[in-house]
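To the team - guanosine-5'-triphosphate complex, inputs and output below.
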Amino acid sequence: MIIPTIPTPDELLDKGFRRGKKAADLARTSKIPRRLKSKRIEEIRVITACQVIKDRLKMILDRVPDIETLPEFYQDYIDITVGVDEMKKSLGALNWAYGIITQLEKDYASKIRRSLPENASSYQKQAYGRIASVVNKIKKDLDFLDFAKANLRNMPTIDFEATTIVIAGFPNVGKSTLLRQITNASPEVADYPFTTKGIQIGHLERNWKKIQIIDTPGLLDRPILDMNEIELNAMVALEHLADAILFIIDVSETCGYPIENQYNLSEEIKRIFNVPMIYLFNKMDISQMNKKENDKNTDNEIELKNVIDSSKNDYDANISYLNQYLNKIDEYLFISAYEGKGIEEILKKLEKVEKIEEDNSQMENEYEY
Ligand SMILES: Nc1nc2c(ncn2[C@@H]2O[C@H](COP(=O)(O)OP(=O)(O)OP(=O)(O)O)[C@@H](O)[C@H]2O)c(=O)[nH]1
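Output:
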C-alpha cells in the first residue's frame, strides 16, 4: 500500500508558516490603502498557512485507501502489521486537525478583518499559536502513519482474479524447491509479517487459467499450538486467499520430522482452511534409494529395479508404508521436486481447482483451534 510521505509536526508547521510569510511579503508590495494593509497582510498570512497545512493533511487522507473497501486479505495484513484500529484512529485525528484548522482559518480571518490595524499582528500570532497546538496534538498520529508507511511499503501483490494455492508443510520438506519447479521462474518475494523469509508468490497460467502459488516460509510449518496469536491471525489472512492447499510431506524424513507428525500437521491445517488439500509425497527419489540400499541382496532387488527404471510411475511399488495415510486422503501425488518429477501431474490437478469467490457478508470465521 502506498502511503504518501508523512511530515513531522515541525515540518508541517514550517512549511505552512514559510508559505504564509511569502504570501504576506507579496501582499506588502501590493497597492492597498495603508490603513487596511497591515490587516490584509496578517489575514493573508493566516489563511495561506492554514491552506498549506490543510492541503497536506487532505493529500494524506485522500491517498490512503479506505481500509474497509480493501479485500479481506489486505485488511488482515494491515491489521497484523500495524493495526487497523490504530490506522483508523490516526487518520481520524488528521481529519479532526483538518476540521479545526478550517475553523481557525475562518475565525481568525474574520477577527483580523474586524480588528484595529494595530491589533492585526497579535491576532495573527494567536492564530499561529493555536494552529501549532493543533498540529502538535497529532504528533503521535503522524508518527504512527510514518511507521505504517514503512511497514506497508512492501505489501505482497496479490492477484485477486487468480486461483490461489497455498503451500504448507514442515521446514525443509521441499516447499521452495517445488514452488520454483511449478512456476518455472523465481517467485516474487515480498515482506510478510511473522515469517522470517517473507512471502513468496509464483504465478503460472494453464489453459487460460491464472494460478498463483503462495509459500509463507516459517508460517504453515509447525503445529498450530506452537503458534502465537499473531501468527494465527496471519494464517487467517491466508485463509481468505486459499482456494486449495498443497501439503508437502517429505517421505524420506530427511527434513527431520517423521511422516506421522507431518501428516498430523496437515490435518490441523485442513481443519482451519477448510479448502481442498492436495498431498504431495515429496523426495520419492531418496526414499527409493534408501529402500534400495536396505533391500540390497534381497529378493526384492529385481522387482524394485524395474520400478525405478520404469518411466511411467517410478514410485508406485514402494508405497506400502504410506498406505495408512493414503487410505484417509482423496488427492495425492508422488513427486520429486528436486528431480522435477510429478510436476506435470501437479499442474493438471491445479488446473481443476475451483476459485472460491470471497463472500463479504460472512464477517467472521467460525472455527475453533
Ligand atoms: N532428494 C531430494 N531432495 C529434495 C527434494 N525436494 C527438496 N529437496 C531438498 O530438500 C532441502 C530443503 O528444500 P527446500 O525447498 O528449501 O525446503 P522448504 O520446505 O522450502 O524449506 P523451508 O524454507 O525451511 O521451509 C533442499 O536441500 C532441497 O534440495 C526432492 O524431491 N528430493
